[in-house]
Amino acid sequence: MTIDWQRERLLILAPHPDDETLGCGGLMAKAKEAGAEVYVQFMTVGDTADNSARGISTAQERYSEIKQVADFFEWDGWEIAFPGDEYHLKLDRIPRFELANTIEQHSPLSIATLRPTVVITPHWTSYNQDHQVTAEAAHTALRPSNNSLRHHPRVVLAYEEAADQWRYDAVPSPNLLVELTEEHLSAKVKAMGLYCTQAHQHPHTRSETTLRSLAALRGMQTGVALAEGYHTLRLLT
Predict the structure, then answer these.
(1) Using an 8 Å Cβ cutoff, are 87 and 44 in contact?
(2) Which of 62, 58, 55 has its CA nearest to residue 47?
(3) Domain 5-235, what fold?
């Protein structure tokens, strides 16, 4: 089957700035090229200890990077649900009820408000606790119900990141592969470069070589040059 991305409104859930690009950068480029609407709900951002010369990336720097990436991809909107050091890398301290309600109803980019046709979440087997709780909260927010009472996106996917494979209970290969052109992949790589506090040289899970290698592997698995992999949670055709 194929998805006519021109007709879709995508909501991508990103625990932190750069997760949406690592997981969905090629698809975002492909969807926007086709005429889709793309929105990104970031869950949190704050000062981040890292391996840079200063040993920290500030929230202000990361806000600046978001704006550059948003302009580059021409997102239709983005929002941060829980900004600040109180929440960054600590989303597992927030009650699941609050996280799920934020995604379902309370955010300006909530499912109830935005009524997306496609929702894409991080994968629940990530080693990162913020990814895990975001995925689980989204799973609750997207629970089955009567479509006349609650909005049901037709397509619900989980994106992958190379680092997810570290989990001992990581799931098998993705079961939905989205073909990319070299232009789509190059856009993903360029956008990741705009997250300059987060990009790294190879060998690293966020390096250009890793992004290109994973796209080549997923493409090979479906007989094309390049692809991004997703796990299907709901697909109504």
Answers:
(1) yes
(2) 58
(3) Rossmann fold (3.40.50)
